[in-house]
Amino acid sequence: MTVNTKSITERAIEKAEEHKDLSYEEMHEFFTDVLNDKVTDHELQCFIVALSNKGETVDEIAAIAEVLKSYAKDIPGVEDKVMDNCGTGGDRSGSFNISTTSAFVLASAGVTVAKHGNKSVTSKTGSSDVLQALGVNLNFDAERVAKELNQSNITFLSAPHVHPKMGQIMRVRQTLKRPTVFNFIGPCISPLDLDYQFLGIYDRTKLLTMAKVLQRLGRKNAVVLNGAGHMDEATLLGENHLVLLRNGNIEEVIIDPTDYGLTLCDLEDIAGGDGEENKDILISVLKGEATRAQSETVLLNAGIGLFIADKAKSIGAGIQTARQAIESGHAYDKLNEVIKNNEEGAQ
Fold first, then answer.
1. Binding-site positions for anthranilate
2. What is the four-CA torsion angle of 323, 329, 330, 334, rounded to 10 degrees?
3. Is the pTM of this model over 0.70?
4. pLDDT digits (tens, 9 = 90+) for 126-145
């Protein structure tokens, strides 16, 4: 009888390089070792590249997500059902911060939003970059975060601050300079137990896989979408591909923005820049002073989010609710409320 004396790490790398899927248990064990400093940077890099070349399964992604979430900081005392609308990044579109802008619209329309994000890795400006330009405090304090969710129904969670054991993963991810499984994992590991999720992904082939991951992670309702132009947001560039998870049922749909009275645009119409430029675009959208393409892109994304969060009976109704939130000034008021709370907290 031959005894397998290879380590967990060696077996994981070998299987991935041979294009063999790891079981949930194998992946859970391997990433527990990663977070306990038992895997070198080189070994983790080899594994992630091999996993990406092989293609990630539902079990593999869910196992990584559950291990990383189990090591995240706790946020006790949150009273309401919570939504995240974080995208994977990796689409290299150079757009403005659509999901961050949409988060303020969602919150102003009654959704409790815990926006989980990071600095830019594969794009020009990540959510953390534009939030820092706005003066939002991304340092983690569990009591402050719970208070923001309970009183203002919106908070922002910076991945490096709520995942203290992710230093090695972030270091390795930076060296790769390519989309990896961590693009898919990032939006799945909010420290909160999410009821609702809006997940935009750059890889259309992973729509159904990620919907099943979110189902396994216990989401009540969720949407996984890949926008026209293969963006990780819903866009006005053409047809958007969605997988809806609602009350345990999964449905694949394609939506055309023109069906909702929205106008198609080109990618350059929603281009962004650095944190300061994207801050200006965000403010102009919430004030109702942005270009049609910028405003309607946010309306589409917020409308889908409102539908998923049970605040609208359809995507069309969600778009109308989002429009009212902006036209009434409620969305801009929500932004000012967040900025004011951060200024008072800094004193």
1. 87, 118, 173
2. 120
3. yes
4. 788 899 999 998 889 999 99
